[in-house]
Specification:
Blueprint (H helix, E strand, L loop, with lengths): L40 E5 L15 H10 L4 E2 L6 H4 L3 E2 L7 E2 L5 E5 L5 E2 L5 E2 L2 H10 L10 H5 L5 H8 L6 H10 L5 E5 L2 E5 L7 H5 L19 H4 L8 E7 L3 E6 L17 E5 L5 H10 L4 E2 L6 H7 L5 E4 L7 E4 L5 H4 L4 H10 L2 H7 L6 E3 L27 H11 L5 E7 L4 H14 L3 E7 L1 H9 L2 H6 L4 E2 L12 H9 L17 H11 L4 H18 L2 E3 L1 E3 L1 E4 L4 E2 L3 E2 L4 E2 L5 E2 L1
Parallel strand pairs: 1-12, 1-13, 17-18
Antiparallel strand pairs: 2-3, 4-5, 5-9, 6-7, 8-9, 10-11, 11-12, 14-22, 15-19, 15-20, 16-21, 23-26, 24-25
């Protein structure tokens, strides 16, 4: 999942409350006492818009947090500052967790009574609405960025997707195709009973259904192109808030949804009257000033400025939540023809793994208190993390240029000059300069290429043609999982399964080891989470032996809110405070 603001690409987690600064009396966490106050306007301020407003295609953390206010799924995650609780699947629009067949392939859900669309008059959400929502993921206009989660698990979804891509991109054609074409493994048995059949057992399928992609869709959505301008002005809510107005790149206003019933929603609240989101503020420092002055309450997408962190330690409105991410990591373009295809040589990649001073990268992002230095392809907090996977560890994580030079000599490679695009925003230029300096100590040159943030992935790392042309050799992207716990499908698969490498792939370097792919396949179809974990650990070790990346750090997340915010519950799935839990003092 891509992330807005100065960090980089989708979610971070907490390991139990506050790491820096106390919660203070005013931050009333669940069970901590205090009486919530109804009313008021929650003021949210930040920079960029959502990537998509339509939940079928939205794939940024800010969109995830917005979706929490007005969409619902069959299952979801509870609001909690205890990590183990926050990542545990609970029923949402379903009245209970599903009945699962003995072979683990058929899931049957009962829809909760009282979950209402804010139509006029309000009406009950149905199993057919969930079928429609899943179909919309495959639409040819704006197919979901997470479509592979569903084509890779639901019986018939791949065939449905393939056929849908051939349909004209018009409202009538799309509506007609969805009406006439079933997904083999998805059916509404009756208005309140939904059945989903899988191609094979998938122990993480409920996590996939908890993503906002799997939101239901009312029949009214068939009147508009998916995420088109008309759609964005006619959203229909199931959550505690409804979108009252949407101005692209400028503002989003949410008001209470009168059709929402607390009795039918066990995870969300409806404390404030209005959520006012103001966009266009590109300075993290200015946003921080507004939060401290009380003219805004929470940041939409801007991080706490690194320069402010030392000053904020001990402030009750400041918190640090521990993260699980590859953020950033150094990736090698294994397709590059440059330097006589030197990066296709595993010995060269292994040598460069020894060259990088990872502590220096951590310092750029605020030091080791805010960042965990990594050695493996799977970060802590994600399935498959293994402290024994440290094939390129150096003393103090400071790098070993001498060993790098020796290994380069043994590989018979010299005079390397690597094409190195980097993003020009946030701390990315400093990261690039630090890595380039480390490579110089190893006798490797770098051609630093300043790149607009919006071009970094699309015009370099995710472009098949540019990769094969050698427009880049190394880059420093980031990856954060879409969920936690049993999340190998959300970490290892998108980054290292080369069997589906194509345009837009997040397997940026085109790494493809059939033996690794086979272990991944076994992990995905494991009969239990413990069996899956062993397979993911095996994949982690095999990947690092091939050295397609240099893991650098996992970033923790400093957060700040205004002094009037209460019940500041952090969402590990959105990397933000959950708007549906906040009340104002």
């Amino acid at each position: 999942m891509k992330i807005r603001g100065g960090v980089a690409i989708a979610t971070v987690l907490i390991f139990g409350g506050t790491a820096c600064g106390g919660t203070g009396e005013k931050n009333v966490f669940p069970g901590g006492g205090g009486i919530p106050v109804q009313g008021g306007v929650l003021k949210v301020v930040g920079s960029g818009d959502v990537d998509h407003l339509d939940p079928s295609s939205s794939y940024t953390t800010v969109a995830y947090n917005l979706n929490r206010t007005w969409t619902r799924q069959l299952v979801t995650y509870p609001a909690s500052n205890d990590f183990d609780t926050a990542i545990k699947i609970v029923p949402d629009a379903a009245e209970a967790l599903p009945k699962i067949s003995a072979d683990g392939r058929t899931y049957t859900f009962k829809i909760r009574d009282g979950v209402l669309w804010n139509t006029s008059p309000a009406r009950q959400v149905t199993a057919s609405d969930f079928v429609r929502g899943l179909k919309r993921l495959a639409n040819p206009v704006q197919p979901s960025g997470g479509i592979s989660y569903y084509t890779g698990t639901i019986d018939g979804m791949q065939e449905f997707f393939t056929a849908f891509q051939k349909v004209p991109k018009t409202v009538p054609a799309i509506a007609q195709f969805m009406a006439r074409t079933p997904i083999r493994g998805v059916r509404a048995i009756d208005p309140r009973t939904l059945e989903i059949k899988l191609t094979t057992r998938a122990s993480d399928f409920l996590n996939i259904l908890a993503l906002p992609f799997a939101s239901p869709a009312p029949v009214e959505y068939e009147r508009y192109l998916p995420d088109g301008p008309d759609f964005r002005q006619h959203t229909i809510s199931l959550g505690p808030y409804r979108i009252d107005s949407y101005q692209a790149g400028r503002a989003i206003v949410l008001l209470r949804n009168p059709a929402w019933k607390k009795a039918a929603d066990s995870v969300r609240q409806q404390y404030v009257d209005r959520i006012q989101i103001t966009l266009g503020q590109d300075s993290a420092d200015v946003v921080q000033q507004q939060l401290e002055a009380g003219t805004a309450d929470v940041s939409w997408d801007q991080p706490v400025p690194t320069s402010a962190i030392q000053r904020l330690i001990g402030d009750p409105d400041y918190h640090v939540f521990e993260g699980s991410s590859l953020n950033p990591f150094l990736v090698f373009n294994l397709q590059s023809p440059n330097n006589n295809r030197a990066l296709a040589n595993v010995k060269v990649r292994q040598a460069i793994n020894f060259a990088i001073n990872k502590v220096a990268i951590a310092q750029i992002w605020g030091g080791t208190t805010l960042n965990t230095v990594l050695d493996g392809a799977v970060p802590p907090g994600s399935i498959g993390f293994d402290t024994e996977v440290r094939p390129f560890a150096t003393p103090g994580h400071a790098g070993d240029p001498a060993k790098c030079r020796l290994m380069m000599a043994q590989a018979g490679v010299s005079n390397l000059v690597l094409q190195f695009p980097y993003r020009t925003n946030s701390n990315h230029p400093k990261v690039a300069q630090s890595i380039a300096g480390d490579l110089t100590k190893c006798g490797i040159g770098s051609n630093l290429i300043a790149t607009a943030p919006e071009d970094f992935y699309g015009r370099y790392l995710s472009s098949v043609a540019k990769s094969r042309e050698g427009k880049w050799d190394i880059g420093a992207p980031a990856w954060l999982p879409d969920w936690y716990g049993n999340n190998g499908r959300s970490v290892v698969v998108p980054l290292f399964d080369g069997s589906n490498y194509t345009e837009g792939s997040t397997d940026y370097g085109a790494y493809n080891n059939p033996k690794v792919n086979a272990v991944i396949a076994k992990a995905l179809t494991a009969g239990s989470e413990s069996e899956a974990e062993n397979r993911w650990k095996e994949a982690n070790a095999m990947i690092m032996a091939d050295a397609p990346i240099v893991p650098l750090t996992s970033q923790n997340v400093p957060k700040f809110h205004s002094s009037r915010v209460r019940n500041a519950i952090y969402s590990p799935m959105s990397q933000q405070f959950d708007y549906t839990q906040l009340w104002l003092g």
